[in-house]
Structure formats: C-alpha cells, structure tokens
C-alpha cells in the first residue's frame, strides 16, 4: 500500500538532536586529545553549556552553505537527517543550465537499497510556472525492480528556485546503482543531471535480526519473520497464515519503541512497504534505528484492519442498484455509460475510523481483477492505473467514492465482484519484544 508525504513540520526530533550531540562530542575529543586534562575538561564543559544555550541550532549548519535550502526539504525527517550527519550525504551541486531554466542536484543521501536525491529548479517567474515542472524521472539505467516517489518542497525567499526531493527504493535483494540520472521538463525545456553514487559511504551498513514470533489478533495469526536494519530504514518481514478465517489487510499504528519511550514510526515520506499482507507476505518500512542503536526494541501495534475472505458485491448495472453487499454502508452512486466502457461510482463510509482523522482508503476490488455476470462469463476490470478515489472527511465519519471501469458489454445481469478489501478493524494493543 502506498502513502505519500508531509513536510510541514520542520522541528528537530529529540533523537536527532541526541545523535548530533554524540557526533559533536567525538569531533571535539579528536581536536583536544593532546591538551592537558584540565583544559580538555574546561573546553568540554563550555561546549555542553553552549549546547544547552542553543538547543535549536539548525542541523543544516553542519553542511556547506549551498546545502541549506536542500536540507530544509528533509529537515522534518529524523532518519534522513541522522544519516546525513553520519557522512551519508554526498554533495554534488551539479547543474544543467542549457536554457532559461536550470536543474541542480545538490546531493544524494543513500544506503544499499534507498537513495534520496535533493535537487532544485530555478529560472524566471518560476512560481507562476511551478506546475510546468513535469515528467520528473529518476532513471537507474538497468531494468531492475524498483519504485520512485516524490518528496517535499521548499521555496527560496526570492521565489526564483524550488527545492525538492525524489526517492528511489530498490526491491529486496537489489542494490542502488552506482549512477543515477535525474530528468525533468519545464516550459518544453528538457533538463538532466547524471548522479554518481559512492558505495564506499555505506558499504556493509546492514544488520539482520531474527524475530520468528507469531502474533494473534482476533484469532487471525501473523508471523513476524525478521528485521533488517539499514541507515535509511528498518525492514520488518511478516506473513499471514492460509488457515486464517478472515483477511488481515494491514496492521494499525505500527511502530518501534525502546524502553526509554523513544519511537520510530512507519516511513511516511515515500514508499511505506512492499507486498500485500492480505495476500500472504508484506515488508513494512520503518524509520531507521541504525545510528541510534537502542538497547531494547519492541514492535508495537494497535490492532489490525480485517475483512471477510469471501465477501462479494453484486450489482445490477442496468437498474443501477446493489443486489447484495456485506452491509448497508456500500452505495452505488452512478453507472456512467461512456463511449467505450462503463464507469461505476461506489461509495462507502467509515463511521468510526480506527485512527481518528486518518483516511486509510480501501481498494474494494483487486487491481486488474475479474468479475462475472449471471451467465458465469468472466470479464476483467479496466483499472489499468489502479483505483481512482475521492475522500470526504469530517468529525463524525469518512466517506470514500471509488471509481471502476468495466468493458461496455451486454451483460447478463446482475454482475458479481469479489471484495478484496473492505472497511473493518479490530483494536488490540500489542508490544512484541524484538531484542
């Protein structure tokens, strides 16, 4: 399941500040190791007072002045900031300025499986033409399994440049290539920058922790296999059991916690995981603990999103009505007869969301799935680019409308659709010791 991103909170996380302090302590000690003990103690005490006096020093001051705006794009993300402070930020400042506009790559933060490219676009009246920045692509050269997601945005004071990030996630087992290419278009001008990636910065930075523990939520079992710890994410592999009566679609409020109350959440600024727990296997991507190294670590959750395995929705598209549904929260809003297909608009509601003010969304039907008419003839959904949907949220409920396209045929009515996901959850707090 995919999720995208929020960069509004630029406050430093206390864990990141602690990492900064530790890094600065190490640097200070290198500089004064030949001094007398009394002078060293004096300087160290002065440093600690300075840290107490200026707790809000911006982390970007640790990098070159040219990186200041680029760092603002990721300033809210403690995993990326701690990685950058631990020598995983590779600065480049390479520019393609072949026309009125310029594309500059400030740098890249990378480990073996993930790379976050920090870039800017500058030029005349850029704010008026911001929507003209299109076809942004991060190209890896080889046809390897991967995914790309766009990140946050920052704007300079004179509105002549915009700063953004774009992330590359390699599939399990694949390694970030040694060269990336960033391309985009603006005002019909094509720009591109080649990005070398120095693997020596992160070589060997990977730890594996066996978990092999079974959890049970409302009689539904999930096996936690293992956790990989990398500088830019923790990966927790899990799977559901085939003999589960119902489908476990995902876990609610998944997080990592230590015995001091520190927390690491699911990654919210990009791809949050791979696989599909309801289909058997899933890998959750969490904020990284690599540089913080907690003494004890727990996996916490508040329950699971659960739905029936064999649920169906039966629709008469000629009459525009629902014949059979799991409950009365599903409504057929419209059957729109287009030139070459029918579009179904289906509404459903969450009266009490599992997480307040959080619109999770459900795909209802399997992507590119099938359905049958009353004669038993099977047809394919035409949702080539995934499920389109709209969301309306207020204090009392969340209302979704999903849109599905089906071939324009003379069907024997009614039509039967298998439900892949459907609103439903069980709240059940669990804390599983990992080590």
Tell me what the structure shows.
The protein has 435 residues and is mainly β. Helices cover 12% and strands 44% of the residues. The strands form six sheets. The protein has a five-stranded antiparallel beta sheet with strand order 1-2-3-6-5. It has a five-stranded antiparallel beta sheet with strand order 9-10-11-16-15, with no helix packed on it. Strands 12, 13, 14, 17 and 27 form a five-stranded antiparallel beta sheet that branches. The longest helix has 19 residues, at 14-32. It is globular and about 65 Å long. Residues 1-60 have low confidence and may be disordered.
Helices and strands in order, then pairings?
Elements: H1 14-32, H2 37-53, H3 68-74, H4 78-88, E1 89-96, E2 102-110, E3 114-122, E4 134-139, E5 146-155, E6 161-170, E7 179-186, E8 189-196, E9 207-217, E10 220-230, E11 233-240, E12 246-252, E13 255-257, E14 263-265, E15 273-276, E16 281-286, E17 298-308, E18 312-316, E19 321-324, E20 331-337, E21 341-350, E22 370-372, E23 378-380, E24 388-393, E25 398-407, E26 415-418, E27 425-433
Antiparallel strand pairs: 1-2, 2-3, 3-6, 4-7, 5-6, 7-8, 9-10, 10-11, 11-16, 12-17, 13-14, 13-17, 15-16, 17-27, 18-19, 18-26, 20-21, 21-25, 22-23, 22-26, 24-25
């Amino acid at each position: 399941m995919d999720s995208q991103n929020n960069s509004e909170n630029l406050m430093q996380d206390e864990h990141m500040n602690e990492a900064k302090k530790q890094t600065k302590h190490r640097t200070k000690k290198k500089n004064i190791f030949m001094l007398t003990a009394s002078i060293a103690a004096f300087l160290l005490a002065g440093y600690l007072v300075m840290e107490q006096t200026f707790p809000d020093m911006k982390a970007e001051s640790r990098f070159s002045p040219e990186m200041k705006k680029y760092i603002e794009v990721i300033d809210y993300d403690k995993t990326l900031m701690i990685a950058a402070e631990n020598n995983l930020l590779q600065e480049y400042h390479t520019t393609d300025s072949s026309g009125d506009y310029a594309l500059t790559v400030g740098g890249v933060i990378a480990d073996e499986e993930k790379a976050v490219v920090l870039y800017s676009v500058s030029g005349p009246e850029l704010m008026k033409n911001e929507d003209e920045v299109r076809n942004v692509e991060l190209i890896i050269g080889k046809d390897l399994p991967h995914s790309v997601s766009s990140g946050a945005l920052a704007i300079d004071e004179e509105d002549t440049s915009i700063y953004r990030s774009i992330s590359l996630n390699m599939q399990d087992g694949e390694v970030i290539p040694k060269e990336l290419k960033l391309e985009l278009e603006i005002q019909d001008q094509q720009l591109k920058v080649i990005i070398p990636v120095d693997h020596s910065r992160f070589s060997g930075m990977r730890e594996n922790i066996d978990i092999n523990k079974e959890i049970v939520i409302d009689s539904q079992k999930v096996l936690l296999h293992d956790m990989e710890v990398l500088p830019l994410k923790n990966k927790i592999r899990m799977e559901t059991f085939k003999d589960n009566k119902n489908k476990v679609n995902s876990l609610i409020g998944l997080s990592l916690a230590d015995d001091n109350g520190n927390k690491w959440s699911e990654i919210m600024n990009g791809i949050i995981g791979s696989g599909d727990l309801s289909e058997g296997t899933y890998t959750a991507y969490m904020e990284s603990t690599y540089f913080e190294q907690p003494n004890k670590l727990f996996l916490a959750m508040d329950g699971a999103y659960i739905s029936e395995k064999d649920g169906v929705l039966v629709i008469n598209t000629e009459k525009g009505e629902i014949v059979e549904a799991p409950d009365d929260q599903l409504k057929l809003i419209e059957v729109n007869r287009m030139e070459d297909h029918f579009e179904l608009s289906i509404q459903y509601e969450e009266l009490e969301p599992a997480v307040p003010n959080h619109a999770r969304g459900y795909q209802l039907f399997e992507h590119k799935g099938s359905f049958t008419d009353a004669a038993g003839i099977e047809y394919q959904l035409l949702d080539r680019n995934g499920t389109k949907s709209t969301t309306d949220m207020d204090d009392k409920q969340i209302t979704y409308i999903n849109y599905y396209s089906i071939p324009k045929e003379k069907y024997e009515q009614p039509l039967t659709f298998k439900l892949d996901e459907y609103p439903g959850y069980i709240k059940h707090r669990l804390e599983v010791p990992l080590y």
